[in-house]
Amino acid sequence: MMLLYRINLWNQPMELSQLQAFVSVAQNSSFSITAEQLHLTQPAISKRISSLEQQLNCELFHRLSHQVQLTETGKCLFPKAIKILQDVEDCKRFLQQLDGKVAGKLTIASSHHIGLHRLPEILKSYAKKYPEVELGFQFLESEQACEAVRLGKIELAVITLPLEQDEKLLTSKLWNDPLYCMVNDDHVMNNISPMTMEKLVSYPMLLPTKQTYTTQIIEQPFLNKNLKLNTSMTANDLESLRMLVEIGLGWSILPSSMLRPPLKIIPVKELKLSRNLGLVRHRDRSLSSSAKAMISLLESSRNFNN
Fold first, then answer.
1. Most C-beta atoms within 10 A of its C-beta, which of 18, 86, 259, 272?
2. CA dist., res. 158 & res. 299, Å (int)
3. SS3 readout for 56-98
4. Rounded-to-integer distance, Cα 97 and Cα 91, Å
5. How many Cβ atoms are within 10 Å of 262's Cβ, its own excluded?
6. CATH fold label, 102-175+277-305
7. What is the DSSP letter of 263?
8. Whole-number pLDDT of residue 51
9. Dihedral, CA atoms, 284, 287, 291, 294, nearest 10 degrees?
10. CATH (residue range 177-274)
């Protein structure tokens, strides 16, 4: 839906829809992807950008053959455009809160594992309790979800919490998620007792994608002992890792919620791992009434799901 808010710049009206298109093209480096996201045609996006450039009397993008890049002027405008759009959303949230009504649009993100194992009943309850909320949901890796919150693309994320605090983000722990060494039931590692970290690294391991929060948690105790994991394969989601372990391609460290036949836990006395799952929101943005209602439901589930 086109926003009708306008900003007068040098006596020319600037529509917020133009800024929306500008920010999205800048983030995606693509007119076509932006058109898909905003449910518009690519010519419509190009027209909005061209109109904005004419009003500002400057070029905002370098149009390359297969990519779009911000000019220096565009780089200067980008953070200010984001701030304007966020301020408008904050105003809308504030006005919604005045009548105490839980309505409007709420966009949240979650990792695949949390979305599949922790959120279904919560989302079902929320949709039933607040039918006037237009709920948008995205599956994103935890690191991508944090970035989306930081950029104002989404209001809330329910993810594996980052190990280091971002000054732009507020985090709140909801659940502790224990992690265990697992293999399939006919793996040779089942015959080794006691299993130690030194013995573990001699067998092929299946690891989440590098640079994820979960991978950092898994790798750290081995790094502390100067041990190098024998990583034979990586996957970008835990469900895929579980499948690879199930067919016998190696061992992995997985959440307890994924333990079901034919997987078995290999006890490793000195290896005690867990990760914190929780909420992430922007520090400087006010919460909508719909977001507050979602947070309340999530927090009420804290004890139930632990």
1. 18
2. 11
3. HCCCCEEECCCCEEECHHHHHHHHHHHHHHHHHHHHHHHHHHH
4. 10
5. 13
6. D-Maltodextrin-Binding Protein; domain 2 (3.40.190)
7. E
8. 92
9. 90
10. 3.40.190.290
Q: Which amino acid is at 264?
A: K
Q: What is the DSSP string of 118-160?
A: TSHHHHHHHHHH-TTEEEEEEE--HHHHHHHHHTTS-SEEEEE
Strand partners, 63: 68
The one-letter code for the residue type at 29 is: S
Contact 34, 25 (CB under 8 A): yes
Among the listed residues 170, 168, 139, the one whose alpha carbon sits nearest the alpha carbon of residue 295: 170
Averages of pLDDT over runs of 10 residues in the chain (306 residues) are 46 81 92 91 94 92 87 93 84 70 90 94 96 94 94 93 94 96 96 95 94 94 96 93 96 96 96 97 90 94 66
CA proximity to 271, closest of 196, 209, 208: 196
Longest dimension (CA), the chain: 79
Q: What's the predicted TM-score (pTM) here? A: 0.75
Residue in the block written with tokens 């992430």: 280
Alpha-carbon distance 257 to 179, whole Å? Answer: 9
Distance CA 106, CA 92 (A): 12
**Which class would CATH give 6-95?**
mainly alpha
**Fold equal for 102-175+277-305 and 177-274:** yes
What pairing do the DSSP bridges indicate for beta strands 61-63 and 104-110?
unpaired
Per the CB < 8 A criterion, the answer to whether 122 and 298 are in contact is yes
Give the CA angle between residues 22, 26, 29 to the nearest 5°.
125
